[in-house]
Design a protein that fits this description.
Elements lengths: L6 E5 L16 H4 L2 H12 L8 H23 L4 E6 L4 E5 L5 H8 L1 H6 E6 L2 E3 L9 E7 L3 H23 L2 E2 L9 E6 L10 H13 L5 E6 H7 L4 H10 L5 E7 L2 E4 L15 E2 L2
Parallel strand pairs: 2-6
Antiparallel strand pairs: 1-8, 1-12, 2-3, 4-5, 4-6, 7-8, 9-10, 10-11
Helix pairs in contact: 6-7
Length: 279
């Protein structure tokens, strides 16, 4: 039963998540040292399964195929001038299928864009780099907003999921945000999750964060979702029970990790400045 799967809990505890902690400054001199960088990369690689799980590549192949089709569809959409109305009533002009909430934020100020977590379009949470499709009402949310916190922690859970897949070759189940962090249920089968693994998972997670992997959204038909996650009985269960026949749902990709997820997410993993596995 799903409720008996092992869970990893973690937190990204900074009150202002995009401000780099002072302790991280100690890393700066080493980034200019190629020998240290090579050692660091080797240390991370030693924590990953080699070869990686076979489902990594099969997921990526399907994702790339349908993402290319989606990009062509967007390219063919007619461009029209749209009006973007901000929460304070001010209006901005944009172009349908091109202008993104992030671009609107950058027009206002770079500092605003840097502290944002997510957007809200006509009351619906919306990725900052997802193009607007028509004239909309737009809100820009940072970590201080309750929904901003939830999105930030949800994205952090995906980072933990990627680290766990790389380390255990596990099958992910459910990875939601909580009131003060996030967790991920997973099936590790013949491998046990031990407290001594926590530092390894943190190391892998921090490497994912350092890579600034983009979160990429893709909508897929139910039959393609079933094919993409055919290796994972938990995802199959969610797809069969939650996605009606003849409809679609979404996946999000960051690096090699692709997960069934309605999103939305922060723009990239580099927005997460602090990470700890707690139990």
């Amino acid at each position: 039963m799903l409720k008996f799967l092992p869970s990893l809990r973690a937190s990204a505890p900074l009150a202002r998540p995009f401000r780099r902690p002072a302790s991280l400054r100690l890393l700066a001199p080493y980034r200019r040292c190629s020998d240290h960088h090579s050692y660091e990369m080797a240390a991370v690689s030693s924590l990953e399964l080699n070869p990686p799980p076979e489902f990594f590549q099969s997921r990526i192949d399907l994702f790339d195929k349908y993402k290319a089709e989606y990009d062509e569809m967007v390219k063919a959409k007619p461009r029209q001038e749209i009006t973007i109305t901000l929460k304070d009533g001010k209006q901005k002009s944009g172009t349908s299928w091109e202008t993104t909430p992030m671009q609107v934020a950058l027009e206002i100020s770079k500092s605003l864009a840097e502290r944002l977590v997510i957007a809200k379009v006509d009351g619906v949470l919306w990725d900052l780099n997802r193009p607007l499709e028509m004239s909309v009402n737009l809100e820009l949310l940072d970590f201080e907003h309750p929904e901003g916190k939830q999105v930030f922690w949800h994205s952090s859970a995906h980072v933990l999921g990627e680290a766990a897949e790389k380390h255990y070759g596990c099958h992910l189940c459910f990875g939601p945000p909580t009131e003060d962090g996030f967790f991920y249920d997973m099936a590790t089968y013949d491998k046990k999750v031990l407290p001594t693994d926590y530092s390894n998972l943190e190391t892998l997670s921090k490497a994912v964060i350092k890579e600034k992997q983009k979160f990429v959204r893709l909508e897929l038909p139910k039959e393609v979702l079933l094919e993409m996650f055919k290796y994972n009985k938990y995802k199959q269960h969610f797809i069969e029970t939650k996605v009606p026949d003849g409809t679609t749902s979404t996946v999000y990709r960051c690096g090699p990790m692709i997960d069934l997820c309605i999103g939305p997410h922060v723009p990239h993993t580099g927005r997460i400045k602090s990470f700890m596995v707690t139990k």
